């Protein structure tokens, strides 16, 4: 609902180049109306970022390009399942790229990575007789982006480092411990501290 | 079902980052399928990925990338995606992510005898992604004292057990690292069925390896 209210400022005067904050609105438009112009605008913003993100994790340019194309196709096909109460467009697209990349890496396993969205949808299924009340409907996507970015800037260097090694360099906790020459327990406790600061930032201000 | 024990925050963060070895990720997803609190926790951690995607470096994309994308959405592949169907496993004890891998209920899978009162069922994961198995332990039986090579996640599917860290029932997860020694004992009237995910079974050495050998077949 928040997205619908802000729909009017989702593009600038020219009507073509969207502002960063408008991405969530564009995504809602794609989901609701199969809006090709909105999709094109999202592609222009996200495609180079998704490719860059995948390359930072070690994919070569050709593989990153393929995964980027698959990610963006999934943005189109799954846009109607996106719900702004569940996070920003950037976060949602991050999870799509992450899932596709993991599925690619699990070559010998036909199993897909189980995404929280998928698990939630499964639980919403009427056949299971259960319903889920979304706890985070209050999260306003645009505000979330700013709060997370600010919280990450405030992290002490050692905590920011383990976050970066996890999300950008794609290292497991064990690999991080090896890389930094630290006990596994120290890596875990830095991750916990960083996570708690992030959670506090999101919960106190939203 | 009241869930009392959850995965560590560091585990949820790694799950969100996509860096949890497959075996551990399956155990987390099995728990998360039942646990709204941890779903919320993972969503919170995923915002980090969104922020890093926004602030990260943009790579040069192919000159025809946009044309290709616009053409692809007009093909059959560009249709509206539907949620993955629920697995056809009618066993309420088995959460959906696990049911997809088992393909059958707990009473219909093959159990391998490994010790008196202890049986196991191995679940295939990609090579080098840890090891994953179900353990079925009879009432009153305990597992031997053991440490852990890396992280070990145990999720109870049926029955319950207790150890020095508390009592674990259906949905509960014990998230332990190598620093913890414990000796769980089954305290339910029915067999305790657990999903056990180990990060690095090949790292077990010496005494620990000998104790765990029957369970892990290493």
Automatic annotation (TrEMBL), chain B:
It holds the Pfam family Cupin_7. InterPro entries: Anti-sigma_ChrR, Anti_sigma_zinc_sf, ChrR-like_cupin_dom, RmlC-like_jellyroll, RmlC_Cupin_sf, Znf_put. Residues 15-39 form the Putative zinc-finger domain. Residues 106-198 form the ChrR-like cupin domain. It comes from the Bacteria. This is ChrR family anti-sigma-E factor.
């Amino acid at each position: 609902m928040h997205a619908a209210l802000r729909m009017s400022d989702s593009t600038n005067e020219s009507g073509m180049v969207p502002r960063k904050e408008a991405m969530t609105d564009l995504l809602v438009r794609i989901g609701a109306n199969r809006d090709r112009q909105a999709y094109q605008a999202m592609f222009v913003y996200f495609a180079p970022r998704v490719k860059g993100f995948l390359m930072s994790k070690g994919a070569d340019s050709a593989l990153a390009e393929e995964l980027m194309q698959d990610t963006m196709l999934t943005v189109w096909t799954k846009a109607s399942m996106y719900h702004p109460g569940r996070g920003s467009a950037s976060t949602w697209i991050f999870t799509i790229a992450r899932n596709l990349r993991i599925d690619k890496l699990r070559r010998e396993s036909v199993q897909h990575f189980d995404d929280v969205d998928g698990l939630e949808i499964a639980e919403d299924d009427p056949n299971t007789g259960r319903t889920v009340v979304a706890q985070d409907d209050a999260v306003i996507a645009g505000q979330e982006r700013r709060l997370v970015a600010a919280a990450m800037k405030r992290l002490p260097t050692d905590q920011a480092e383990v976050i970066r090694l996890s999300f950008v360099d794609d290292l497991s906790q064990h690999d991080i411990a090896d890389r930094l020459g630290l006990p596994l327990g120290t890596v875990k406790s830095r991750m916990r501290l960083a996570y708690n600061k992030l959670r506090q930032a999101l919960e106190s201000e939203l | 079902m009241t869930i009392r024990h959850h995965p560590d925050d560091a585990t949820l963060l790694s799950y969100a980052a996509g860096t949890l070895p497959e075996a551990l990720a399956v155990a987390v997803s099995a728990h998360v399928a039942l646990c709204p609190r941890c779903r919320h926790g993972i969503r919170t951690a995923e915002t980090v990925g969104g922020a890093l995607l926004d602030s990260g470096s943009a790579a040069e994309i192919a000159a025809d990338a946009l044309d290709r994308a616009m053409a692809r959405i007009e093909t059959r592949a560009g249709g509206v995606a539907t949620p993955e169907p629920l697995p056809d496993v009618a066993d309420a004890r088995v959460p959906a992510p696990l049911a997809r891998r088992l393909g059958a209920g707990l009473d219909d899978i093959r159990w391998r005898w490994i010790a008196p009162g202890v049986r196991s069922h191995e679940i295939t994961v990609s090579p080098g992604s840890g090891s994953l198995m179900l353990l079925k332990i009879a009432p009153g039986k305990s597992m031997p004292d053991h440490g852990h090579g890396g992280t070990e996640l145990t999720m109870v599917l049926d029955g319950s057990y207790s150890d020095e860290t508390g009592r674990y029932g259906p949905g509960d997860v014990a998230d332990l690292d190598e620093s913890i020694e414990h000796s769980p004992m089954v305290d339910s009237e029915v067999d305790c069925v657990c999903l056990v995910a180990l990060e690095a079974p090949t790292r077990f050495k010496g005494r620990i390896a000998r104790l765990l050998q029957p369970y892990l077949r290493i």
